[in-house]
């Protein structure tokens, strides 16, 4: 479904070259829920923006359902960490969810149906007439998720969507995302810096190294399909998996500290 | 609290008017040049009954409104184009900084030369003065576009035109509103100035005529009308602003939880 091959991204600006992502190769199958986890500042957001067509990679390529990504691909929805800035404060919740559908060229009745259904799915059926800033942070992120759902994407890209909400809301939203994933069969690529979250949510966890980023390890999460915040998080297998991922990330950080700086090879053409 | 403030404001105004009545009557200033409030009020009543006064008021408002509309339209279009087209902003910045501080009244000789005492003289001055107010605000407003909002719009496949309409324009709108409010005030000043100095028909010209014919109370009455006009324009602009920006934090006056 989603193929990332040899992805490399170098930022150039004001005389500085920063190699954010060195060489990333992985695939995400159709209908899979994959979590990307890595130390902070390891280029997770850069990677996701390349996948979403918002950034052009320096080298390598991203293909989605066989087609090369060179701009935001149709059928992909993005949920940002900064929900407060990603929702438009000048539009009511309903209009926010509806706007991408208008761009898709859907008719009024179909749009209305999708908006109502998406808001219902995230538990905000009554909020359509409110402005985003009248809602709590968790509710705002639900609206952003509803906007993505209404778009009926094949692939949902989520960039640390719960990093800015409180712990209880976060647990609710994690369950919401897993529930929606199971219900709708969307392919989800979920970026997080939170190891527990990655293991709890993902069917597979891709561990990234520190910047410049490579894939450190890929790990199948063999927890049951049915998960819940109480029993899953205290299951011995959960503890094993999170410990394993934690160790890999610590190793990645140490690796970064000992790696000599300034040995970047020139980007292949 | 609101009622108390309104009462205090009314009391202050009443005191000011009473002072304006008492000071000339007590002979502290020359009554010929500073007529008491009651005589100005009388003159105002006479003016209001005069068809020529209303024609002059209409002329002034026409020049003001037309000039403001042209300036706002041009300011918005030019501002958005300069901001959206790459490198255009850098290329125009120094020119704008040079042209903007030129006082519009310095263009009066040019206006007379080009258009004589016609409406177009007023328009030239009004447009020149108001245009920069709007343009500068649009330029600032467009810079304020949130990169996350912009990326959100791009990720959902909004094209350049849709992004201007749904992201750039609403972001810039609070700035545009400020620009329009400032421009509306400046436009009135320039409209009256042009009439007063060049003699284009309107309130300004009528003030000049009243002055040269020694009709001092009438002159004051007209000045009062010009002042009220400015007040109404400001109040009107603010209420439009409040309506259009109900979503904006400066208007909603509360921070979301």
TrEMBL record, chain A:
Keyword line: ATP-binding, Nucleotide-binding, Transport
Upper classification of the organism: Bacteria, Bacillati, Actinomycetota, Actinomycetes, Kitasatosporales
SUPFAM superfamilies: P-loop containing nucleoside triphosphate hydrolases (SSF52540)
Protein name: NitT/TauT family transport system ATP-binding protein
PANTHER family assigned to the protein according to its UniProt record, in alphabetical order: ALIPHATIC SULFONATES IMPORT ATP-BINDING PROTEIN SSUB, TAURINE IMPORT ATP-BINDING PROTEIN-RELATED
InterPro entries: AAA+_ATPase, ABC_transporter-like_ATP-bd, ABC_transporter-like_CS, ABC_transporter_ATP-bind, P-loop_NTPase
Pfam families for this protein: ABC_tran (PF00005)
ABC transporter domain segment(s): 2-235
Keyword ATP-binding: yes
One GO MF term: ATP binding
């Amino acid at each position: 479904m989603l193929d990332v091959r040899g992805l490399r991204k170098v930022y150039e600006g004001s005389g500085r070259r920063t190699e954010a992502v060195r060489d990333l190769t992985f695939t995400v199958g159709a209908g899979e829920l994959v979590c990307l986890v890595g130390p902070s500042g390891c280029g997770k957001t850069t990677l996701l923006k390349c996948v979403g067509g918002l950034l052009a990679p320096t080298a390598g390529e991203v293909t989605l359902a066989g087609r090369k990504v060179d701009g935001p691909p149709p059928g992909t929805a993005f949920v940002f960490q900064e929900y407060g800035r990603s929702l438009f404060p000048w539009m009511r919740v309903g209009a926010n969810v509806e706007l991408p559908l208008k761009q898709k060229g859907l008719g009024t009745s179909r749009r209305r149906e999708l908006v109502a259904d998406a808001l219902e799915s995230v538990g905000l059926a009554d909020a359509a007439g409110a402005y985003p800033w009248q809602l709590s942070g968790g509710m705002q992120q639900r609206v952003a998720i509803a906007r993505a759902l209404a778009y009926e994407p094949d692939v949902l890209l989520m960039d640390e969507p719960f990093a800015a909400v409180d712990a209880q809301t976060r647990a609710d939203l994690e369950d919401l995302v897993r529930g929606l994933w199971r219900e709708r069969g969307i392919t989800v690529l979920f970026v997080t810096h939170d190891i527990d979250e990655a293991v709890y949510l993902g069917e597979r966890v891709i561990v990234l190294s520190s910047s410049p980023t490579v894939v450190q390890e890929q790990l199948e999460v063999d927890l049951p399909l049915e998960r819940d915040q109480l029993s899953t998080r205290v299951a011995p297998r959960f503890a094993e998996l999170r410990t394993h991922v934690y160790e890999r990330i610590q190793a990645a950080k140490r690796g970064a500290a000992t790696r000599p700086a300034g040995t970047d090879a020139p980007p292949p053409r | 609290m609101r009622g108390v403030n309104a009462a205090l404001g009314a009391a202050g105004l009443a005191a000011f008017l009473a002072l304006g009545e008492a000071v000339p009557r007590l002979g502290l200033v020359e009554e010929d040049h500073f007529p008491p409030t009651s005589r100005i009020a009388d003159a105002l009543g006479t003016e209001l009954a005069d068809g020529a006064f209303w024609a002059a008021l209409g002329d002034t408002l026409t020049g003001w409104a037309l000039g403001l509309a042209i300036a706002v339209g041009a300011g918005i279009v030019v501002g958005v184009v300069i901001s959206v087209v790459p490198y255009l902003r850098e290329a125009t910045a120094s020119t704008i900084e040079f042209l903007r501080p030129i006082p519009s009244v310095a263009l009066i000789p040019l206006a007379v030369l080009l258009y004589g005492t016609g409406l177009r003289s007023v328009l030239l001055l009004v447009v020149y003065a108001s245009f920069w107010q709007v343009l500068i605000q649009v330029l600032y407003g467009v810079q304020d576009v949130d990169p996350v909002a912009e990326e959100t719009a791009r990720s959902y496949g909004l094209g350049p035109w849709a992004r201007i309409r749904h992201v750039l324009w609403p972001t810039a709108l609070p700035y545009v509103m400020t620009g329009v409010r400032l421009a509306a005030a400046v436009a009135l000043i320039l409209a009256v100035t042009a009439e007063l100095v060049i003699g284009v028909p309107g309130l300004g010209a009528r003030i000049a005529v009243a002055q040269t014919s020694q009709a001092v109370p009438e002159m004051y009455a007209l000045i009062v009308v010009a002042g009220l006009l400015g007040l109404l324009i400001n109040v009107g602009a603010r209420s439009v602003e409040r309506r259009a920006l109900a979503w904006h934090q400066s208007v909603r006056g509360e921070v979301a939880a």
